[in-house]
Amino acid sequence: MTSALDYVNLDYADLDVDPILDHCNGLLLLDDSMVLNPATRQWVKLPPLPHSRTLSGCTICRRDRYLVYDPTVSPHYEVVLIPRIPVGTGNNHNCCYDYESVSSTEWPPSPYIISVFSSKTGCWKERSYIREGDAAGIVADLKLSAIPASFLHYSAYWRGALYVTWEYAFLLRINLLNDVKYQVIKLPQGNERTHLRLGKSKNGVYCLLLHGGCICEVWFLDKSRGQMNWVLKNEINLESVQAKFPVVADGPWDVQSFDEMEWLLKNGANFKATDENNKALVQDDFEWDSNDENVVSTADWPRECCGSGSRFYRCLGFHPYKEIVLFHDGSNKTFAYHFNSSKMRFLGMMWIYHEEIEASFGYTPCWTRDLPGSN
């Protein structure tokens, strides 16, 4: 993706993949303390992180930054830095806290001090949040490991609240608008072979659990009755995909080749063509025709994996406006699973090595005005 951002002065231009820390409603947050809007090719270099008691000497938690942006509310955005749980043993200078001094304390702490950059003020400021409800546990029992530097931290921003997963331990919900409290929410149960993915879709915050690479569960965070509860929306065995779509080369959606992407980058973005393409996608309302050979029903698929000849499936992310989750398998096929109607649709081939996909998200350009403070 480096060539896609060649208009930005990056400190890591020699890397094959730019460390993208987060995204939100069309904006990207890069590890180089930079916020950019690829749709308008505008970017902002953020000021240095503050020196505070939670950040002094910390190199790991400086990556725990999350982008908050809702253009329907304000043209301004925020970058939220949430100190991570202490890791390792002994004096760990790469962490926010000395492990030995906090190993028996509750986590997350209360008050929880986080740093927030606002494009409105152009500076960082500390905010204090009080925990509402129980903690996740004590530091020594949680035993979380450090997340690799290249890992994209999946989060979701929904109606003024930021949701962040701490590996498989818990979900953190912080109200960034008018509240000074935060909550710890348990995640749906998995195991060491479970892949967890948080996302935002049609009705709010969703969580996908992929067990053993083939059994997929989609959960919805329901707060209609005043409490946060996970509701199982649907479950599917992805092994049956191989039998339904054995050997196919084309699908209804075209995935751009590397040559096509390079051509677009060299010739600039064609916003007229982009608008026409967006209108075509809107017309595809995902009420899929049962006569379409690329669409199959999953209602009668088996619920358990047989474990023979199964491919590993990777979740590419949630559709931002529809109850749809996207998958990619080891044979370069991409699929859309409509978990409301229990239908699977073959989209096309994505010619990229399966093991090369470290992280993915659905990019949603929705703001073409000037980025506050941009170059």
Mean pLDDT reading: 75
The class by helix and strand makeup works out as mainly beta
**Terminal CA distance:** 20 Å
Q: Segments where pLDDT lies below 50 for 5+ residues?
A: 12-17, 53-57, 88-94, 145-151, 271-275, 277-286
- Helical fraction: under 10%
Compressed to H and E, one letter per element, the order equals: EEEEEEHEEEEHEEEEEEEEHHHEEEEE
Q: Beta-strand level of the residues, as a percent range?
A: 25-35%
From the spread of the alpha carbons, the general shape counts as globular
Strand order of the largest sheet: 5-6-8-9-14-13-12-11
Number of helices: 5
What is the CA-based Rg, rounded? Answer: 21 Å
Would you report the number of β strands?
23
**Could you describe the largest sheet, including whether it forms a barrel?**
8 strands, mixed
Compute the number of structural domains: 2
Structure notes:
- By secondary structure, this protein is mostly beta strands.
- It folds into 2 domains: 2-187, no CATH class; 241-356, no CATH class.
- The chain has 5 helices and 23 strands.
- The protein has helices at residues 99-102, 139-142, 240-244, 258-267, 271-283; strands at 20-24, 27-30, 34-37, 42-45, 65-69, 77-81, 106-107, 112-118, 123-131, 137-138, 155-158, 161-166, 170-175, 181-185, 194-200, 205-211, 215-222, 229-237, 295-297, 314-318, 324-328, 333-338, 343-349.
- An 8-stranded mixed beta sheet has the order 5-6-8-9-14-13-12-11, with no helix packed on it. The protein has a 5-stranded antiparallel beta sheet with strand order 19-23-22-21-20, with no helix packed on it. Strands 1-2-3-4 form a 4-stranded antiparallel beta sheet, with no helix packed on it.
- The two termini are 20 Å apart.
